[in-house]
Design brief:
five-stranded mixed beta sheet; Trna Endonuclease, Chain: A, domain 1; 2 helices; alpha+beta; 5 strands; 26% helix; 41% strand; globular
Length: 111
């Protein structure tokens, strides 16, 4: 499965649950966020991980401390002056073959 296919499926999944997709593949000097969405008033930073099998672990396990740190920094960069003023959340959407799982609030600013 190509990463773009996984992100397309993740966006469709999130939309089907009422999320508004704000941005895809948002880049800044420190990295990239796969999907930025709104869930009600909450800005959700979504990391999409895909695998064809579990030989190298579950997709969500690939979001390690370093990746979480990059996502936290990206959230601050995206929000700019609004950082700390709007509710945010960090989710992981895992695509494993045909299955999609969604881990809401996968980590927070203290992780």
């Amino acid at each position: 499965m190509e990463w773009r296919d996984a992100e397309d499926r993740a966006c469709a999944y999130l939309r089907s649950r009422g999320y508004l997709i704000v941005a895809r593949n948002w880049r800044w000097r420190g990295g990239e966020v796969d999907i930025i969405a709104k869930d009600g008033e909450t800005i959700v930073f979504v990391e999409v991980k895909a695998r064809t099998g579990t030989r190298f672990g579950l997709p969500a396990e690939a979001v390690d401390r370093r990746k979480r740190g990059k996502l936290l920094a990206a959230a601050r960069a995206f929000l700019g002056r609004d950082a700390g003023k709007v509710p945010i959340r960090f989710d992981i959407v895992s695509v494993l073959g045909r299955d999609i799982s969604h881990l809401r609030g996968a980590f927070g600013e203290g992780d």
